[in-house]
Amino acid sequence: TESSLKNVLVVSFGFLLLFTAYGGLQSLQSSLYGEEGLGVTALSTLYGGMLLSSMFLPPLLIKRFGCKWTIVISMCCYVAFSLGNFYASWFTLVPTSILLGLGAAPLWSAQGTYLTIMGNTQAEKAGKVGRDVVNQYFGTFFLIFQSSGVWGNLISSLVFGQTPRQGSGVLAVLLVAVFLEPIKDAQRKREGDEGPPFWSTLLSTFRLLGDKRLRLLVLLPMYSGFEQAFLAGDYTRSYVTCALGIRFVGYVMICFSATNSLCSVLYGRLSQKTGRAALYTLGAVTHLCCIIALLLWEPHPRQLAVFFVFSGLWGVSDAVWQTQNNALYGVLFEKNKEAAFANYRLWESLGFVIAFGYSTFLCVNVKLYILLGVLSLAMLAYGTVEYLEAKKVARPAAAEQAKPAEGEETETAM
Predict the structure, then answer these.
(1) Model confidence pLDDT, tens digit, residues 300-321
(2) Long-range contacts of 300-307 (CB under 8 A, 24+ apart)
(3) Reduced to 3 states, what is the DSSP secondary structure of residue 94?
(4) What are the record keywords, sorted (predicted)?
(5) What does R_g of the chain's alpha carbons equal in angstroms?
(6) What are 9-25's pLDDT values in tens digits?
(7) Is 127 helix (H, G, I), strand (E, B) or coil?
(8) Which contacts (CB < 8 Å, 24+ apart) does range 241-244 have?
(9) Is residue 359 within 8 Å of residue 231, measured between CB atoms?
(10) What burial class does residue 185 get, using C-beta atoms within 10 Å of its C-beta: 0-12 exposed, 13-18 middle, 19+ buried?
(11) Is the model's pLDDT at 190 over the cut of 60?
(12) Interatomic CA distance for residues 29 and 23, integer angstroms
């Protein structure tokens, strides 16, 4: 238990250090280099690179280098981006943005795969249900990781324009490289599977879309991309900055990160008692109420607390999407984890890209209606998957019950 918890903490603190530096940089990107369109171009190339890499890179890199070294290599791409920001120009920012985009999908896919394998291995040792331990590990990870939003925004709010020192990214790489244990997938080892050939691995992200459940579940990460983009871009700009001024943006985002962080660990424990469907319902109802309230609300500087209530509730909901979506993908597609998490990043990135694409020319109200529509469809599709899974579990159970009944009949006939 101690060694697996140590590994979960190493991954979590590695990501915390990495994203304390990067998160602050990203949120200031469009405002720092706005004049010549450099910031927007950098973000566009970043998301373009992310989309491209989600399609092919994660399964390949994880198969070739394993989860640990995929995380280390991908983290180096983030460090390069931080260095590019030191001398911000077209020649430094655009190439490093592409590099960061290429590194993002393997980084998150390897993290998801690592925590899933770690959770299942630990559950097997302790005689627990794999799903519960995986959920707990994702809860612990997001507790620590989401707090990076607190530290990153705190630093950039107290000294506006100051992003956290880029050295924390280098520390993240060293921490993971030195202290994280490499991990083997026990299930593959048992089946004696050496893994599929190169071309098969390359296309595994798309092949997994042949699974009906995955086709239904692509809307969940896509919605996650939409709602994060709305909060980071539109809520901060159209509500907070308009009514309170830019200096409050950091503090409002701290409130989001803090509730997100605390709820993550809470959901990791709660899911064992309530099941995941109850948590998804909580997340959907909370976001639904927020969206409707934002459509009706006219922000005013005198209602200071309300701005924080919205970002706090958004965090309560977002914690459901982050912890439960990751655990759901890891549990449902256990045999194809790498391809499943690559798909997760692909569709989430697509959500970001679409939201980022229309952010400049659509009204806030229209964006809220889009969120409402995507959320409703995503929950409908998710409900269908839960129904299919319940049917699958019920079938063998019914067959088991039928067997003794048949035995009894033959006895009475005799």
Answers:
(1) 989 999 999 999 999 999 999 9
(2) 300/243, 301/243, 301/244, 304/244, 307/239, 307/240, 307/243, 307/244, 307/248, 307/252
(3) helix
(4) Glycoprotein, Membrane, Transmembrane, Transmembrane helix
(5) 22
(6) 999 999 999 988 776 56
(7) coil
(8) 242/299, 243/299, 243/300, 243/301, 243/307, 244/301, 244/304, 244/307
(9) no
(10) buried
(11) no
(12) 10
Per-residue tokens: 233: 């871009």
Tokens representing 3 are 């060694």
Residue 129 has pLDDT above 90, yes or no: no
Residue 79: CB atoms within 10 A of its CB come to 24
Angle ∠(284,290,292) on CA atoms, nearest 5: 100
- What is the rounded CA–CA span in Å between residue 209 and residue 222? 15
Specify the 3-state DSSP secondary structure of 355.
helix
Neighbours of 165 (CB within 10 A): 13
The first and second tokens of residue 185, run together, are 């997938």
Q: Count of residues for the chain? A: 414
* pLDDT band (50, 70, 90) for residue 149: confident
Please state, in angstroms and rounded to a whole number, the distance separating the CA atoms of residues 42 and 245: 25
CA separation for the pair 353, 69 (Å, rounded): 28
- pLDDT tens across 230-253, in order? 998 888 888 888 888 878 888 898
Q: Fill in the amino acid letter for 323.
A: T
Q: Which residues of 283-319 are buried (b: 16+ CB within 10 A; e: fewer)?
A: bbebbbebbeebeeeebeeeeeeebbebbbbbbbbbb
Give the other-Cβ count within 10 Å of 270's Cβ: 18
